[in-house]
Each structure stands twice: as C-alpha cells, then as structure tokens.
Amino acid sequence: MKQILFILGLPRSGTTLLQRVLSTSPEVDTVSEPWILLPFLSFRETGQNKSIYGSRPAQTALNAFLGEDHRLEKSIADSLRNYFHLRYPGCRYFCEKTPRNLLYADTLQKWFPKDRYIILNRNPLNVAASIFRTFENGVLNPYKFQVDLNRGLKKLVWLNRHADQALIMRYEDLTGNPYESLKRCSDYLGLDPPLDPSTTPPNLTGEMGDPTGQFSMTDITSQPELGYLTFIDSVYRKRWFLRFLEKIGRRDFEQLGYSWEKHSQALKQHSVVKPIGIRDLLCLFARKFLEMLTFRVLPRRREEIPEFIQY
Fold first, then answer.
1. pTM listed for this prediction
2. What is the rounded distance in angstroms from the CA atom of residue 195 to the CA atom of residue 17?
3. 19 pLDDT tier (thresholds 50, 70, 90)
4. Where does the pLDDT of residue 298 fall: very low under 50, low under 70, confident under 90, or very high at 90 and above?
5. What is the set of domains in the chain, with CATH numbers?
6. Contact 20, 131 (CB under 8 A)
7. CB–CB of 240/132 below 8 Å?
8. How far is CA 247 from CA 150, 170, 241, 311, in A?
9. Rounded CA gap, 222 and 208, in Å?
10. With 0-12 CB in 10 A as exposed, 13-18 as middle and 19+ as buried, what is 271?
11. E-strand spans in 53-207?
12. Which of 31, 33, 26 is nearest to 9 (CA)?
C-alpha cells in the first residue's frame, strides 16, 4: 500500500456505493467499515469513551501529561499507516470508508496530510429520510442520529470549505452521470484502467456496513431529487424537516451544492393531512420519557449524557 484513500460523507450518502465501485480497480483494496481509526482519533477528547477504570479522570490525566506535545499522535498515525501497509502490501490504495470518521475530519487531515480524500455530498434532506427508512424502519427518530445530522453535517460543510487537495463529489452526480463522475475519480487517483460504471460492484467483507449500499444495490441508478417528500406524510414530519433545513442554514446548504430556494419551497408547498403517525408518536413519547429520566430523576454531568440527548 502506498496511500490511504479516505471516503468521507454522511451515512446514506452513497459512500458505500462509491467504495464498492472503487474496489473493482486492481489498484484499490478495501473492507466494509473497519472502524479502526475512531478510538485513536478521539483518544484526547473528553466525554467520548467509557471504561471500567474511569475514562473521565483518565482523560484529564492524559491531556495534562501530554499537554502540547503531539508526538504521540504522530506515532499513532505512523503506526496505523504501517499496519495498513503490512496488511495490504499488494495494492496502491487502501480505501478506508467508515462514515463516522467524518466526525474527526480535521484530526484525520492533520494525521494523514499526504493521503487522498474523496468527499461525497448528498442533499441532507434525502440523507435524513434515507437514514430513517433504512435504520429505523421508516420511523422519524432523529435523536439516535443527531451526532450525524448535527455534528457530522457541520464537519461535512467544513470539509467542503477546507478541502484543498481533496476530490469533492455529489451523490446526485455519481448516480445521474456515473461516467463523468467516475472519470473524475480515476483521474484524481491516477487509476489505470479507469473505473467502469458498467462493472457490477462486488459485495465487501466485514461485519459492519450499510445494509442497502452493501447488498441491495447491484448497479448505479439515479434517485429522485425530491425523494424525501415521499417520506413526509404528516404535519409532524413536515415541521421536523422544515426545522432541520432552517438549522442547516442557507449558507451551509448551498455550500454543499444545493438550492435553498428550491428545497425550501418544495417543503412548504408539500401537502400533508394527518397530524402525526402512530409510530412517530410512540417514538416521541419514548424520547420525552428518556429526557425526564436523564435530566430530572438521574441528574448527571453534561459530558456523561449521551450525545443524541444533548442536542
């Protein structure tokens, strides 16, 4: 292995599909979401881990000991690179695609500045609807994925503004015009032969991975630009998506390459009748009960509260 190739994007934004297509190249080796970097990337951040020995005091002691000395981080990065090289000696690129690497994109670029990065954007409204369909069986349960839809989305916008050496792509372009998108990919990576969108991408090995992107998709097919509207079948869902769009903000939404006016108007004009679905209502009640239990019955430090409750 000569270089690590990182694919960075939100869950359900086409990263698994792109990874599978890249794996058709003889110059690229990969596995489905190894998650190997996350414990190391987060080892100096408070409130990220729990342990039987007491992670909070250990974190305090660790940061006090290391101070501004970043040689340990460099050693860890070098060790990880060496491990990938030893495990995948015959390839030019090892493709590391773990969606929540996005949460530590700035640290990742500091540790691996000479490696390759592909940033894959997808309309956040379609991302949210796809997450609920895929992982929550069609229930609007944003609390479980706030880390992705809040912090992850902010990191994605940051990457789009600070990705000098990276290749930025859109999921809509990848699925709508795969020949042009994969040509850009092949040119960026110097792949010979170039990627062929007509080649059926293989399934990947590994325990983790998106069940749809990993197994269900057998070829590259375009998706409706306003596909999220089919998920919005109640006043409750419409209000949530409108608030989500407002929270993203016009500037960041357009930074990702999408028209604020078009999608804002589409949401406002979308007609719904029922107030709220039964399953969404049960999920909302469960959320309120969990909030009451966490904040009133069992008060605790904020950093110990799960992040999906904090937001």
1. 0.89
2. 13
3. very high
4. low
5. 3-310 (3.40.50.300)
6. no
7. no
8. 9, 21, 10, 12
9. 25
10. exposed
11. 93-96, 116-121, 167-170
12. 33
